[in-house]
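Our platform keeps sequence and structure together, in a single record for each protein. This encoding replaces a full spatial description with a residue-level series of whole-number codes. We quote a single record here, exactly as it is kept in our systems:
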Amino acid sequence: KELEKYPASKRIVKVGRCWKEIVRTAEEEGVDMIVMTGRGVGKVDEVEEVLLGSCAEMVLRHSKIPVLVVK
């Protein structure tokens, strides 16, 4: 119900690697910007993953669309 307040929002459920599905779906839907949160939890191998989280970090690396990560 909360999303109904925002007509530009849409709920899409996909299965797969989170970053790949986010980037692919954003390109397919023709979005102007990807907005996501960065949690920084789980096993980390890179400094970026500690600060952002591995999914957000990979979306930032692979997306041609601008990405806003909100902490």
Observations:
- The longest strand covers residues 34-37.
- The chain has a mean pLDDT of 81.
